[in-house]
Every structure is written in structure tokens, then in C-alpha cells.
Amino acid sequence: MVELTVDGQAVGAEKGKMLLPICLDAGFDIPHLCYNESVRPYGACRLCLVEVRKNGRGRMTTSCTYPVIEGIEVLTQTEKVLRARRLVIELILAMCPGDEEIQEMAREMGVEDVRFEKEEKDCILCGLCGRVCEEVVGANAIHFANKGSNREMIPPFAGEATDCIACGACVTVCPVNVIGMREESDERTIIRWKRTLKMKKCKVCGNYFAPWFQLEKFRQQAGLPTDFFDTCYSCRE
Description:
Elements: E1 2-6, E2 9-13, H1 19-25, E3 49-54, E4 57-62, E5 73-75, H2 79-95, H3 100-108, H4 128-137, E6 143-145, E7 152-154, H5 169-173, E8 181-184, E9 187-190, E10 195-201, E11 208-211, H6 212-222, H7 233-236
Parallel strand pairs: 1-5
Antiparallel strand pairs: 1-2, 3-4, 3-5, 6-7, 8-9, 9-10, 10-11
């Protein structure tokens, strides 16, 4: 364990843990979009900027990628930090001006208008969907493509995500809710990736509970019996 100070308050933390979750757990309000505890930190959105002072010298850094060390001083609400965050959220709002969640976050940070040319995107390019698909699910169905203003998260060749198992993990972690999932009868569709898969019906309750493709992938990975997913999670309990 190490001890640091955050806005003048002593905080204990496990050495090597990233600063953002430590601060959030201690009750400090730091805005963020691309952070999720399930995947490795990426620092894409830049909203979690803080000032870290060590050995008398300070610098701004993304708190989601900064590992805590003994004796550092962390400042989360200085004018320098708040000004930098406002600039970041203004850039994000210019990129996705129609997103209500971004609009609300910007208002909370004191940003009502943007000085930059507005685009008509909906994805903020945080990469969370691709990271959870790779690191947690293991499907690798979507990836970043292109560079600069043309950068986007898409399935290979921009077609249907043929490796997608329609588990919905990407839908759950998306901070701006632009992926979308729809279930109709015995089918589940991940809307953004144009992926529709048949779902399996529970032999006990008769409800459709997960895509066949997803269940078979998990069954093979775990070496489970062929009939393991004949019942849904609720009935198995």
C-alpha cells in the first residue's frame, strides 16, 4: 500500500493501481468516458485529466493511465485542470453535437457552445467497444480503421461483423449509447454492426435467452458438456 494526497485529503491505495479508480472510490468527482474497470486503460477521451505533483514538480496527466506511487499530490479541481477538461469536452461536443449525454456532460462542466467546426458523428472514438470485444469477450469482431477525421470503429471491411457473437457487451459499455441491440422473437440484432443471430430457447421456461453462436463459443472455450446451455441462467439456479 502507498499513501498519496488528493485535493489535500490523504488516500491509501495499492501500489500500481491507476489513479482514476482510486479517486472515484474515494469520492472524488472526475469526469470520464473511455474508462471501464473491465479493460485496460486507454486514455482516449482525455476528460479525466488531473494535475500530479511529485518531488516539487507538477504535470497534467490522464488519471486513468497514471499508476499511483508513494507521496504524490493529486489536484483534481484547479482552474488549470478544469480549463483543460472544458476544452476537451468542447472538442468532443463539436464532433458529436447531437449526442444528449455529451450535451449534458458539457453543460455540467460549463460548456454551452463550441468554437470549433461541428461534425455529424455519433461515436466519440473511445474504443471501449473494441477493447471489451477483444479483452473480455475474445471475439475481436470490431476494430479501429482509418486515420485522422476518418477514424472509425467498424467490423472488417465495413460489412457485417461476422465474428460478433451478439453478446451485447459492446452495447453495455458504450458511454454514449450509439451501438444498440434489438431482440425480436428468436433473433437478436446488434444494430451498429449489422449482426443478427438466432437465439436459443430454454427447455424449462421456454424463453429465448442468448444467441446460439455465443453459447456454443463459450461452451467450447470452457470445455462444457453439449447440453450445458439447454437451460437459461435463471432456471439453472
